[in-house]
Structure of Asparagine--tRNA ligase:
Amino acid sequence: MHSSIFNIQAKHKRGDLVTVKGWVRTRRDSKSGVSFINLYDGSCFDSLQVVVPDNLENYQEEVLKLTTGCSLMVKGELVKSLGKQQSLELRAEEVLVVGWVDDPDSYPMSPKRHSLEYLREHAHLRPRTNVIGSVARIRNCISQAIHRYFNEQGFLWVASPIITASDCEGAGQMFRVSTLDFQDPARDEHGKVDFEKDFFGKETFLTVSGQLNAEAYACALSKVYTFGPTFRAENSNTSRHLAEFWMVEPEVAFSDLNESAELAETLLKAICRAVLAERADDLRFLSEYSGEDLFSRLDQLATMSFVHIDYTEAVAILEQAERDFEFPVFWGADLSSEHERYLTEQHFKAPVIVKNYPKDIKSFYMKLNDDGKTVAAMDVLAPGIGEIIGGSQREHRLDVLDARMDELGMNQEDYDWYRELRRYGTVPHAGFGLGLERMVAYVTGLGNVREAIPFPRTPRNASF
Ligand code: 4AD
Ligand code: MG
C-alpha cells in the first residue's frame, strides 16, 4: 500500500521506506545533480518534497522532462530535510511516471496564482490548486461535523425527495422535471401542455427544500434532519446564490422558535470548533490568501453569544442608522443584504438572530403569532455574509394553516398530505435550513458560494 502525504506527516519517521502517489506541482533542478519535485496528493495542505538523484536510470530520459500536473509513483526513504518548509523529505529510489501532461504549455493550472474567475472556467482541474484543494477539505470537514453533531444529539438523518410536486417556499422558483417533448408536447383541449401525459401524470419539479417532508418524519421520529442538494431557478447573479446548493434542515417535534434558534447557534459553534481543530493547515493558507484572519473569525463565532432580536427592533435600529441604504427600511419590508450587514458588522459586531417577521414577507407554513401580523420566523445573520440560516416554527393548527393558504390563493389539494399531518396528533414543531455553501464561503474567507461547491450552477452556466 502506498502512503498518503497526510500519513507521512502523521505517522512516519526518518528512515521509513515508503511509496507515495500524487501530482507534480513544481520541479527544480540543482547544479549539483539532483532534482527537487514538489508532489501533492490532496490528503492535506502540505506537499512532499521529493529529492531525485541523477543516478536513477530514468533521470535524463524522464525525470528531467516532468512538468506541472504529471502524475507519479515514487518509492524511497524518508530523510531529514534541510529545507525550512518541512521536516521530512523523500529521497527517491524509483520514480514511475503514471501519466504525462501531453502538451505542458496547454496545461491550464500553472503553479502561479490564477484568479478565481479563471479557475471556475477550468472547474475540472481547479481542485489541483492550493486554494480549491483547501476549500474541498474544509467543505468535507464541515459536512462531517454536521453529521457528527446531529448524531450526538440523537437526530436521525432522513432522505427527502429531489423530485416533488410541492413548492415549499411558494416563490415559484422551481426547475421543471419532465419527460415531455417540448418541441411538440401533448396539449389538452385548451392548447395547454398536458402534464397528465407526462411520466408522473402531473407537473413535477426539483425540490427547493426538504422541509415539508422532514416535517412528516419529525412528527413521527421527533428529531430528524435532511442534508442534500436543493435547487432554485432564482435569476440572481450574486456571490450568495446558486441554482443548485446543499441544505441542512433539522426539524424537531414538540419544539418552538426559541429552541430552534438555540439549536442553530450551537450547530454553528460546533462546526467552527471542528474546522479549527481539524483544518488549521488550510485555515492558515486561506487566511493569507483572503487577507482575513480566519482563526479569529471562527473563534468569535464559536465563543461569542449571538444577539437575538425581533424584526420590529431590527427595523427600528436600521431606521435610526445614520446612513442611506439603497433599499428603504420600513416595517413590512424584507431586510436586504446591506441591512443584514449593517446589523452584524456595524451595530452589534456579532452574529444576529432576527425573529418574528411580518407574515407577508414569509412562507405559508410559518406559525402565525398572537398579534396576527407576524410569524414565528428567524434568520441567522453572520458578519461578512449576511443570512446563513432561515427557519421557523411551523403552523401546526390546520384551521390557521388553511386560512393562510386561502389568503395566498394556494391550492389546498396540492398539499393534502401536508395538511393531513395536522389532523392526526398534530404537535408544535420547528426547524431551519443552513445553506452549506454560504457556510463554506464564510469559513474559507472567499465570500463567494461559487468557490464553495465543486461544480457551481448559476444562470447560463451548467458546464462540467
Ligand atoms: O431561507 P430559505 O429559503 O429557507 C428554506 O428553504 C426553509 N424551507 C428552510 C427550513 O426551514 N427548513 O433557505 C435556507 C438557507 C438560506 O439561509 C441560505 O443559507 C441558503 O439556504 N440558500 C441558498 N444558498 C445558496 N444559493 C441559494 N440560491 C440559496 N437560497 C437559500
Ligand atoms: Mg431565507
Observations:
- The first strand starts at residue 17 and ends at 29.
